[in-house]
Design goal:
With 391 residues, this protein is α/β, with parallel strands linked by helices. The protein is 31% helix and 26% strand. The structure holds nicotinamide-adenine-dinucleotide.
């Protein structure tokens, strides 16, 4: 069997999630390639070596550029902070590699367009990891909407809430620096919510937003301090205070091409909400509600039934006929967050096999970043911004 050699860059949260996804893929889905965990790139030699041993990578390096010239690497999977995405993706594309990249696509619309154009020119497959599209219940929601179960869509309500930086002493990690992250929850969380809205009901045409930063400055991790990410605590090695340059919460109202009116709100200051990713879609014939914390379920309201007999019903999306789940366990044996990565990689490898595309890709990434930048501009200028307006 032909080999598909994978190299990942980044050994943090996503390094683990993607390595798990690549490892599981051939065990549950049938693909025409042998998936090989070929190499991992990181910054710290000791850490990347330990990571390679733990996850079964054949090799490791502290120089991600060394992966580019290698003929025996087919896919580069970028799992680094947003500031790194554009240079890494374009370099990989120019080297003829297929590319997986974590969201948000890039710091700016301009950068994301460059990534999309480079991929188009090189003819490689790109996948942008808005993995929630690959949740069976959400893929099933898409089928229901396309089959007309909701009729004409009136409303989208998307919400994505977390609470991991509510401690004012939480350090100034890359997530809180606009130059490295592009934005706060607007980029980190609303990028997912915008992706789902576009996937399920269509393109937004205008945006009106308010963004807010509650904690204006935070301590910088000092020399010797641990690497910080979500869930880190101040370890006492923190030094000077520097300004937070991203939003802590971002609320937007959107108009859609199909006439629908929607809202998308995201925050890292919603106490008790750890990864509260929800949406509601309301149409003339019915409604659908989803909550990631109960990700195997989809709430459906059938508005065509007798009012006296109607009410929300819970569909348990674990039937073999539902998207993706037939590859896993018998009905009712639920799946989780990590499975979405496997579904995405399956479709990505199929696209390579068949010479087709997968969505979302860098074109989608550019459209999403445009909407997020319109939201930033709307918040700064206090006015509604058309998505086709020049930034
Ligand atoms: N899809 C999801 O569910 C999801 C969840 C969390 C994060 N993300 C995204 O994944 C990306 C990474 O986030 P994370 O939480 O894994 O971050 P993290 O801070 O946990 O890990 C980032 C990794 O990148 C490495 N890195 C940074 N610069 C590098 C370089 N020049 N060369 C080699 N390695 C480098 C760091 O050493 C670290 O291992 C971000 O774009 C983030 O938005 C996606």
């Amino acid at each position: 069997m032909k080999k598909l050699n994978i190299a990942i860059i980044g050994t943090g949260f996503m390094g683990r999630a993607h390595s798990n996804g690549w490892s599981q893929l051939p065990k549950f889905f049938s693909v025409d390639y042998e998936i090989v965990l070929k190499a991992v790139a990181g910054r710290d030699e000791e850490k990347v070596k330990a990571f390679a041993e733990k996850w079964g990578y054949e090799e490791y390096t502290t120089d991600w550029r060394s992966l580019l010239e290698r003929k025996d690497i087919d896919v580069i999977d970028i799992l680094t902070p947003t500031i790194e995405h554009k240079d890494m993706a374009i370099a990989a594309i120019k080297a003829g590699k297929h590319v997986v990249c974590e969201k948000p696509c890039a710091l700016t619309y301009k950068d994301a367009v460059e990534m999309a154009e480079a991929a188009e020119k090189a003819g490689v497959v790109t996948y942008l990891n808005h993995n929630y599209r690959k949740v069976p219940a959400i893929a099933f929601a898409k089928q229901m909407i396309e089959n007309g179960k909701l009729g004409k869509i009136y409303h989208w309500r998307g919400t994505y809430l977390q609470d991991w930086i509510m401690d004012e002493n939480f350090p100034l990690t890359w997530h809180l620096d606009k130059k490295k992250a592009g934005g706060g929850p607007l980029y980190d969380l609303s990028s997912h919510a915008v992706d789902l809205a576009r996937f399920l009901i269509g393109e937004p045409t205008s945006v009106m937003a308010m963004c807010k930063t509650f904690v204006k400055e935070r301590p910088v991790p000092g020399v010797g301090a641990a690497t910080f990410s979500a869930g880190s605590k101040n370890d006492g090695l923190l030094r000077e205070m520097l300004p937070v340059t991203v939003d802590d919460a971002a609320f937007m109202t959107l108009e859609f091409e199909n006439g629908a009116l929607g809202t998308i709100d995201s925050s890292r200051f919603a106490a008790g909400r750890k990864n509260y990713n929800c949406f509601e879609v309301y149409g003339s014939k019915g409604a659908l509600c989803f909550n990631l914390e109960r990700m195997n379920e989809l709430e459906f309201y059938d508005n065509t039934k007798e009012p006296s007999e109607s009410g929300y019903q819970s569909i348990i999306v674990t039937n073999g006929k539902h998207p993706y789940v037939g590859a896993w366990w018998p009905e009712g044996h639920i799946i989780g967050y990590e499975h979405t990565f496997v579904h995405a990689f399956y479709e990505f490898v199929e696209a390579i096999q068949n010479g087709t595309r997968i969505a979302p890709n860098f074109d989608d990434g550019a459209k999403i970043i445009k909407i997020l930048q319109c939201a930033q501009k709307s918040s700064e200028e206090g006015r509604k911004i058309r998505v086709d307006e020049e930034l």
